[in-house]
Design a protein that fits this description.
single chain, alpha/beta, Rossmann fold, 7-stranded parallel beta sheet, 21 helices, 21 strands, globular, alcohol-forming very long-chain fatty acyl-CoA reductase activity, Fatty acyl-CoA reductase, NADP
Length: 591
Amino acid sequence: MEALSTLSSCSVISRTALKLSNNSRRCPPKKVDNMIYCQSTGTNAIKSSSSVISSDHSTAFMEAAGSLVLSPNGNSQAETKVKDLVPYERHDDGIGITKFLRGKAFLITGATGFLGKVLIEKMLRTAPDVNKIFILIKAKNKEHAMKRLKNEILNADIFKSLKQVHGKSYQTFMLNKLVPVVGNVCESNLGIDEDTSKMIAKEVDIIVNSAANTTFDERYDIALDINTGGPSRLMNFAKQCHNLKLFLQVSTAYVNGQRQGRIMEKPFCVGDSIARENLLSGVNHNSFPFLNVEDEIKLVLESKQALDNNSVSQKMKEIGLERANKFGWQDTYVFTKAMGEMMIDSMRGDIPVVIIRPSVIESTYKEPFPGWMEGSRMMDPIILYYGKGQLTGFLVDPNGVLDVVPADMVVNATLAAMAKHGTEGKPGSSVYQVASSAVNPLVFKDLARMLFDHFNRSPYIDSKGRPIHVPKMTLLRSMEDLSSHLWQDAINRSGLTDLADPNGNLSKKLENICRKSVEQAKYLANIYEPYTFYGGRFDNSNTQRLMECMSKEERWQFGFDVESIDWKDYISNVHIPGLRKHVMKGRGSCS
């Protein structure tokens, strides 16, 4: 009943925001200032001071210069006109990131998570004169919220640089800046009590939403409540904030779903559907149903009412995946995150909005120190199983690309975009994809070679103190080949081949051992398959231009040049050592 009530509140919140979807399924053409940038034939970049964006975000052309600005993600022939092109100038003082942060008040959700901690650490280290940071924490009362703040943030390893700087006054400094707020993005008015809500609304300058459920195969009702309903409720709260300068949403580059080729940095509008974009020319697009967020919420509520408690969990997972695939997304996580972006766009009004879309976020590249991470990220279970000799093959396109970006680069890009658009204060929505696949791709077969080299140079140690020698990772293109490989590998690793009868039939004991190992690996492969065979490459032109706006000092202090990453050095000397130290806590390593 609790989940039902939260979804009901989400549905109520959504009705006002979704009037657009009931009256006009497509985004109407809109005038956007400084929306499209392009490179001239000379050394100066140029930008448009006025442009008209077509309703389906299709191909954009420079009318005067005749140069292609954006490649389409859809099939329409509508054009974007770019007029009044003027020289683009970068000032020597750059964006003014630290200047912007000074004295500002922030409301941050998801602050106890991995990326949230990296963000807070960087803010307090580079701009200790920020006013305060309100941190929304799910807790039963203020005392519990303060306890979580101290245990999960103040005591985290990532803040050791700040501990060294402030010494004995570290806790005093942190508690003067960080204000725990009892709340929940899944509740009406964020679950904040009335007095606190009014106080925050009066003081806050920037809202950052990094709260999310990132489980790929999560229950649809749960993912919808936090990833779609959460941004909606936050935007409702944002409209109560008197001095708000910016609303920043941390999304994911994979909201682009099953788009292929070079994927541009364009916002979602209510009703957008990737499946509609991918329809062949000549097909009647009107025959394909529009995506309506409120209809999805109603579907969940009605489905839950018809299910018994024993079947609701599995059925909600199945419905989520079915709906995601129907509209062109690979799983429930990215589908509900995309709908969250749609809600923000439909509700924002005059509030400046920035959407940050990182790809797979992994350990820090440099700051506050290399290799810090918390919990296993996307590629880490595969790395750990392989290093322990428990996984010698995986379902993957050897020539495919894993789009990875270090957490500190994501945070630096976030702060740069925040300062730029927060200073400008212009209504509109700006999208930044912080990703590597288009400019510095990490190819799977190269990654496999890096893992092999690392674990042969620095192997895991088993429970008896012996080094675990791993073979080269076998990269397989079909589930059938993977299953066959896993079965044979499980038999070999079990050391129980003598339990097979003379005809080669497995004993019951050996079969059970192998089946468990194989099923675990196949489950992982099934979840990851849309990503290990992903055909899209995330364009990051907006993000690169953002970097061009920065001064030399800002690039040094807030750098996010993913093109500069040496993947072999990062994977072998930064990420895996960080994984072994901070996640595995040194287990399986030489003392």
